[in-house]
């Protein structure tokens, strides 16, 4: 995977400051993990422009090469743009109404146009003319691809896959801050410098290919991110609770930008290896959460309600159980936490949280042995830590509002 980043600084005759980041993908991939250090440079620029009130727009364009089914290519291009846009929204100060995404559906005619560029004519490749003729002959995309693969025992196809097609698999981010009297942005058009060798030395040869970036002025058509807010659903489980032999699952759903609702359920019907030590419970702790970031990632603060039935013994001579099995602990509290990615598939996430609350307790005290007699009833108020979670979650995208990426 190759990365090119160019920052243009406007002079007296240029309308904008523009920073551009271009990421090239391998066939069928949309993972942005390798480019995150480079996107972080854009994040610094975005935050600086945002704090000074100069940031106007962030445009993200995803593209796919024409090899493969057209529908799948469009979906792949959209995913490449969405992954970068989601990262910027989650990790920078850019607002949703300042970011727009677009996709580029490249066809074989685009490949032909690139090969007809003089820069490829200078490469003296034995396959350039043959590929141009095969594309010019026309036909469906599948038939063109079949024709290309038949040239010289797939060697022409291997040349395309190494030096041409990878440059059509990209996501490009343009950050623009125009002067007040201008509405145009400074965009960039990349032209690849082909290798002199007609055949690759390895599948990674294209990674070292340089690109020449030429600045041109053009009007950028954008779509408002306000038109698209993606609702997400999370299925989660708390690892420390499993260590205590509590089976548990939680569901969290986005309600709106900055707001979500989560419902964890804990159940344990087990003794801790002896009948004198146990922490049996059925607990529900629904919580409303506020996220400073509009895409509901990173830090959060929450307010929760708690309801728990319990039967506990700690190895001593007493056992404690909610009165008559129908007076659960009831109360609520507040919590803070942070959600983060922990693997290349960004749908998998981890979350750490801690909370404190106040609960009304009404419980019976029994002798801690089989069929032990009841010896007391107590009522008290508990206040303290009522939530300590380190969860693993999987994210589902539920619904999009407005247009698509």
Briefly characterize the structure:
This protein is α+β, with helices and mostly antiparallel strands and 405 residues long. Helix content is 20%, strand content 45%.
What would your notes on this structure say?
With about 400 residues, this protein is of the alpha+beta class. It has 2 domains: about 220 residues, OmpA-like domain (60s Ribosomal Protein L30, Chain: A); about 170 residues, Porin (Beta Barrel), CATH 2.40.160. Helices cover about 20% and strands about 45% of the residues. It is built from 8 helices and 18 strands. The strands form 3 sheets. Strands 8, 9, 10, 11, 12, 13, 14, 15, 16, 17 and 18 form an 11-stranded antiparallel sheet that branches. The protein has a 5-stranded mixed sheet with strand order 1-2-5-3-4. The longest helix has 22 residues. The N terminus and C terminus are likely disordered.
Question: What does the secondary structure layout of this molecule look like, with pairings?
Answer:
Layout: E1 3-8, E2 16-24, H1 36-51, E3 57-64, H2 70-91, E4 99-105, H3 108-115, H4 118-121, H5 128-136, H6 141-149, H7 155-163, E5 170-178, E6 185-192, E7 211-218, E8 230-238, H8 239-243, E9 247-256, E10 259-268, E11 271-274, E12 277-284, E13 287-290, E14 298-314, E15 318-322, E16 329-341, E17 348-367, E18 374-400
Parallel strand pairs: 3-4
Antiparallel strand pairs: 1-2, 2-5, 3-5, 6-7, 8-9, 8-18, 9-10, 10-12, 10-13, 11-12, 12-14, 13-14, 14-15, 14-16, 15-17, 16-17, 17-18
């Amino acid at each position: 995977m190759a990365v090119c980043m160019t920052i243009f600084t406007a002079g007296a005759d240029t309308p904008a400051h523009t920073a551009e980041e271009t990421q090239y993908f391998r066939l069928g991939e949309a993972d942005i993990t390798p480019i995150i250090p480079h996107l972080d440079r854009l994040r610094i620029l975005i935050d600086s422009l945002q704090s000074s009130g100069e940031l106007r727009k962030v445009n993200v364009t995803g593209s796919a090469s024409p090899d493969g089914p057209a529908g799948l290519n469009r979906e792949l291009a959209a995913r490449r743009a969405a992954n970068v846009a989601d990262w910027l929204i989650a990790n920078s100060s850019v607002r949703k109404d300042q970011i727009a995404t677009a996709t580029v559906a490249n066809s074989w005619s685009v490949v032909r146009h690139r090969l007809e560029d003089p820069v490829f004519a200078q490469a003296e490749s034995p396959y350039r003319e043959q590929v141009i003729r095969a594309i010019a002959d026309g036909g469906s995309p599948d038939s063109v691809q079949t024709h290309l693969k038949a040239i010289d025992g797939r060697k022409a196809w291997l040349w395309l896959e190494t030096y041409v097609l990878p440059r059509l698999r990209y996501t490009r981010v343009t950050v623009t801050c125009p002067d007040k009297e201008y509405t145009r942005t400074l965009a960039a058009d990349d032209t690849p410098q082909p290798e002199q060798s007609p055949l690759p030395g390895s599948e990674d040869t294209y990674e070292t290919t340089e690109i020449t970036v030429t600045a041109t002025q053009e009007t950028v058509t954008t779509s408002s991110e306000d038109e698209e807010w993606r609702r997400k659903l999370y299925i989660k489980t708390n690892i420390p609770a499993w260590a205590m032999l509590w089976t548990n699952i939680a569901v969290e759903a986005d309600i709106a930008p900055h707001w979500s609702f989560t419902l964890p359920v804990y159940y344990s019907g087990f003794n801790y290896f002896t009948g004198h030590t146990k922490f049996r419970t059925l607990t529900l702790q629904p919580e409303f959460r506020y996220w400073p970031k509009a895409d509901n990632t990173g830090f959060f603060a929450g307010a929760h309600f708690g309801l728990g039935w319990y039967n506990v013994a700690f190895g001593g001579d007493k056992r404690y159980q909610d009165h008559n099995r129908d007076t659960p602990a009831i109360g609520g509290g507040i919590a803070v936490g942070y959600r983060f990615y922990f693997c290349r598939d960004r749908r998998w996430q981890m979350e750490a949280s801690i909370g404190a609350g106040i609960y009304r307790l009404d419980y019976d005290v029994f002798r801690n042995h089989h069929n032990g007699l009841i010896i007391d009833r107590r009522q008290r108020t508990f206040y303290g830590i009522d939530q300590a979670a380190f969860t693993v979650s999987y994210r589902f995208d539920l619904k999009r509002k407005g247009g698509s990426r």
